[in-house]
Structure formats: C-alpha cells, structure tokens
Please model this.
Amino acid sequence: MLLLDGQAGIGKKLLAMDLAKMLCEHSSEPIIWLTPIDGKAEDRDSPAKIDAKIAELSQKFMQNPFHTGYITESALISVGMVKHLLRNFELKAGGNRVAIITNADSMRDDAANKLLKTFEDVPPNTYFILTANSRHSLLPTIRSRSTCFSVSSLSNSEISEILKYYGYAAPTGDILEFAAGSAGKAMLAVDSNYSAIKEKIEVYAKLALEGDASSAILCTQAIEKDANIAAFFLEGLALYLLKIYSGQCSVHIQSIHFLLQAMLAKKFTAEHAIQNMALRLAQKAI
Model:
C-alpha cells in the first residue's frame, strides 16, 4: 500500500497511473479504479452506476490527470462502492494487479473501515495506491498500513509547461498566484475566467471595507449562483486581503475559511456566503 498526499492538482494521479503501469507491465490484469462520485446515495449502491461513473472519471483522469474540476466537493466514496471494489479480489489474479483509490480522504469512515480487513491482509500480487490532499484526513489505521509519500507543489515554470502541454495558453501572473503551486487549480481558474472574477473582487472589497455592504453584494450578483465560482471568489478575496493588509487580517481569513467550508458542505448557499462576508467586512470597517 502506497499513500501519495499533497495539494490537489499537482500530479498525484499521474504518478499513481505511471506506477500502476510499471507494476502491471507483464500482467493481464486491468488497473482498478475507485474514485469519489456524486449524485444520489442510491447511485453509490448500484454496481452498474458505480462502474459507469468511475469509467467516465478514469477516462478523464487519463486524458488530463491534473485538472481538479472532475470531482465535485459533494462527491464521496461510500460503503457500497468499497464493497463493489472488493469483489475484484474474489478471483485469483493473472499477474500483478493495482487498485488506484483517488481522493481517499473523501472516504466516509464506515467505507474506510470496510477496507481495513483487506488492507491488513492484502491479497497476493495486489497493490493499492491511494491519493489524498492530506494523509491526516484519513483514519490512523489506514495511514499506519501505508507507505506514505508527500508530493511537492509545483513551481510556476512547471505549471506553465503543464498547462501548455494540455492545450492551455500561458497562465498570467494572477492565475499563477492564485494556483499556489497547483497546475489543476490553474486550469480550473482559466476555465472559470478568474481574471474577470479578480476585477470584481477588488470592487467588492473596496465597497465592503468602506461599509457599503449592499453595494458590495450587488456587484457580485453575476457570479454568486455557482458554488465553484463563489469558492474561487472567496479564495481570491483572501489573497487580496492578505496583500492590502500585509498579512494582518487573520479574522477575515478565518471568516473566509469558515464560509468556504460551510458553503461547500451546503450549509450556506453561495449567495449567502458572499453576502455574509460583505457584511463582516463592512462591520469590521465600521
């Protein structure tokens, strides 16, 4: 068992696929995938729907293993999906076989516990490669059974080369700053037109910090309905505040982090998260 961790979009899936190909070079066994899927809970208990969705996602990973937009924040790995994975090991392997479990930190605890018995007694010629944004998000019992390897963030020149390879134009300085070492995040930022969002952030922050929360909210109405774009907006706002406050804005950054987590957990809508932040900035200014 190998656990690769590091921030999203830095090539952990690419490394996992390359290792799997090496291990299965002389094997007739296909690479097995387990990756988070979204949708209705019953979809994650249907073998046909699990296979169809994972086949679709794994194809996208093979085409571009860096992009972070294929798996939504609401996607997860359920017990039903783990049970379906384990059926692959009921028959004897015809050589080495590899199971790649991507975004393993999105496994529910009951799903992770279901895997533990297999991890304690891994079948012959079988290798598990897990990827996660943080190893500490996984159960300690899974970490202890894995060889852990941290994958480093990318340099700006590496990000530029990767984007060029996958057909993107050279990223601008603001995209590279926002990406913070992640090629996948840079791709998603380009796809989401982050440069235009950044312009709205500056207007929004100026109005809110002057105490005009209502005008700040109005200037974001074109983007507030999409959770992913709203997340980019709030992350970009954090960067902007760090610049203008020279790092002295811990209260605001904590608020943004809280709102991001609440929004992505669907406790707040994207609209309410941005409204909430405008009010917090305005009240602080007053």
